[in-house]
Write a structure and sequence with these properties.
- Chain B: This is Large ribosomal subunit protein uL11m.
- The complex is a heterodimer of chains A (about 150) and B (about 170).
- By secondary structure, chain A is mainly alpha-helical.
- Chain A has eight helices and no strands.
- Chain A has helices at about 10-15, 20-30, 30-35, 40-70, 70-95, 100-110, 110-125, 130-150.
- In chain A, helix 6 (about 100-110) packs antiparallel against helix 8 (about 130-150).
- The longest helix of chain A is centred in the middle third of the chain and has 30 residues, at about 40-70.
- Chain A is globular and about 45 Å long.
- In chain A, about 50% of the residues are buried.
- Chain B is of the alpha+beta class and about 170 residues long.
- Chain B has two domains: about 30-100, Ribosomal protein L11/L12, N-terminal domain (Ribosomal protein L11, N-terminal domain); about 105-170, Orthogonal Bundle (Arc Repressor Mutant, subunit A), CATH 1.10.10.250.
- Chain B has helices at about 5-10, 15-20, 50-55, 60-70, 105-110, 130-140, 150-165; strands spanning about 30-40, 80-90, 95-100, 125-130, 165-170.
- In chain B, strands 1-2-3 form a three-stranded antiparallel β-sheet. Chain B has a two-stranded parallel sheet with strand order 4-5.
- In chain B, helix 5 (about 105-110) packs antiparallel against helix 6 (about 130-140) and helix 6 (about 130-140) packs across helix 7.
- Chain B is elongated and about 55 Å long.
- The N and C termini of chain B lie far apart (about 95 Å).
- The model of chain B is unreliable at about 1-25 and about 115-120 (pLDDT under 50).
- Classes of the chains: A mainly alpha (about 150), B alpha+beta (about 170).
- Chains A and B meet through helix 4, helix 5, helix 6 and helix 7 of A and helix 5 and helix 7 of B.
Chain lengths: ~150, ~170
C-alpha cells in the first residue's frame, strides 16, 4: 500500500527524517498520482512531477511579484526558481532513462535555489511570508525527491 | 400597446416574467484534458517527435502549434532549448507558454559542460569569466520580469547559480 505505517511506500520515504515526517506525509498524500504509485520508480516519477508542478506555480507567483513590485531581490528569486524547475524536470528525464545517480543529484541541487532565494531576501532585509512558505515547500520537495530517487540507485 | 406598470407586473405569472428577461451569458472555464511539458529548439518546432506524439494523442492542431511556437521563439538563436508548457483542452484546443532558457543552461553552454560539479563548492567543474556572466545577464534581461532590473543584480544571481553548479567565476580566463 502507498500509505500507512513505515512499511508502505510513502512511509519508506518520509520515515527517513522524523522532523520532516509529518510535512512529507501530508504533501505526498495530497497528490492522487503519488497515492496511485505501485512501486518506488512510479513513486519517484510522481514525486518529481509534483515538484515540477508546484515549483512552476511558485515561479509564476514570483514573476508576478517581480513585475508588480520592481524589487531586485524578488526578481532574483524568480531567476532561482527558473533553475529549480529545470532541475526537477531534468531529474525526471534522467529518471525515465534510468540515469539514476544523475537524477538523484539533480533532485538534491534543486533545493539550492530556494535556499539562494531565502538568502537573497534576508540580505535585502525583506520579510515576505508567502515567499518563505514556497521556499520551504520547494526545499521539502527537493529533499523528498532526493530520498526517493536515492532508494532506486 | 398598453404599457405595463408595476401593479400589472405583479400579476403576471412567473413564467411570463422569465420570458421577458434578457438572457445572460456566463463564461465557463474550459475543461483541461492534460498539461504537456516539452523542450523544443527555438524556431525548430516540427510535427515530428517529440512534438508530434505529445500533441497528437490529444488531437491538437500540430501545424498551428509549430507555426505559433516558431514565431514566438524566432528572436532566440536557433537550437536554443525552450521549455514549453501546453494546456490541452477537452475540445481539442490548446494554449501554451514558452520560457526562455534558465541561467543554468546558459552557464553550462558557456562553460562547455554537460552538468555541474558533483560536489558544488568543493569540486570545480569549470571556470567562467566575469564577461561571460555579463553576457548571460544581458540575455536574461530580455525576460519581461527582469527588464527593469539592473544588470549588476542579475549578474549577482547568476554568480550564485554558478557557484551552486561548481562553476568558478574568475576575473579573466587564462
Amino acid at each position: 500500500t502507498v500509505f500507512g505505517d513505515g512499511s508502505d511506500l510513502i512511509g519508506q520515504i518520509c520515515n527517513e527524517n522524523p522532523e520532516k515526517k509529518i510535512e512529507c506525509t501530508n504533501i505526498l498524500r495530497a497528490d492522487p498520482t503519488v497515492l496511485g504509485a505501485k512501486n518506488l520508480l512510479q513513486l519517484s516519477e510522481a514525486i518529481l512531477n509534483l515538484a515540477v508542478n508546484k515549483t512552476e506555480k511558485a515561479e509564476d507567483f514570483l514573476k508576478g511579484l517581480a513585475n508588480t513590485t520592481d524589487v531586485p531581490a524578488i526578481a532574483n528569486c524568480a531567476l532561482y526558481y527558473e533553475n529549480a524547475v529545470e532541475r526537477f524536470m531534468n531529474s525526471l528525464q534522467k529518471l525515465k532513462c534510468q540515469d539514476l545517480k544523475v537524477a538523484n543529484y539533480l533532485a538534491a541541487i534543486a533545493g539550492d535555489e530556494p535556499s539562494s532565494c531565502e538568502t537573497e531576501l534576508s540580505a535585502a532585509h525583506i520579510v515576505n511570508h508567502a515567499i518563505s512558505a514556497v521556499n520551504h515547500q520547494t526545499s521539502l520537495l527537493s529533499y523528498i525527491a532526493f530520498v526517493a530517487t536515492g532508494k532506486l540507485s | 400597446m398598453k404599457q405595463l406598470g408595476p401593479a400589472h407586473v405583479k400579476n403576471l405569472k412567473p413564467s411570463l416574467l422569465l420570458r421577458n428577461l434578457p438572457s445572460t451569458t456566463m463564461s465557463v472555464p474550459k475543461a483541461v484534458a492534460a498539461t504537456i511539458r516539452l523542450t523544443v529548439p527555438a524556431g525548430g518546432a516540427r510535427p515530428a517527435p517529440p512534438v508530434g506524439p505529445a500533441l497528437g494523442q490529444y488531437r491538437l492542431n500540430l501545424m498551428a502549434f509549430c507555426k505559433d511556437f516558431n514565431a514566438r521563439t524566432q528572436k532566440y538563436k536557433a537550437e536554443t532549448p525552450m521549455a514549453v508548457t501546453i494546456t490541452a483542452y477537452k475540445d481539442n484546443t490548446f494554449e501554451f507558454t514558452v520560457k526562455s532558457p534558465p541561467v543554468s543552461w546558459y552557464l553550462k553552454k558557456a562553460a562547455g559542460v554537460e552538468s555541474g560539479s558533483s560536489r558544488p563548492g568543493h569540486v570545480t567543474a569549470s571556470s567562467l569569466s566575469v564577461r561571460h556572466v555579463h553576457e548571460i545577464a544581458k540575455a536574461k534581461q530580455s525576460d519581461p520580469y527582469l527588464q527593469n532590473m539592473p544588470l549588476e543584480s542579475i549578474s549577482k544571481s547568476i554568480i550564485g547559480t554558478a557557484n551552486s553548479m561548481g562553476i568558478k567565476i574568475v576575473k579573466d580566463l587564462d
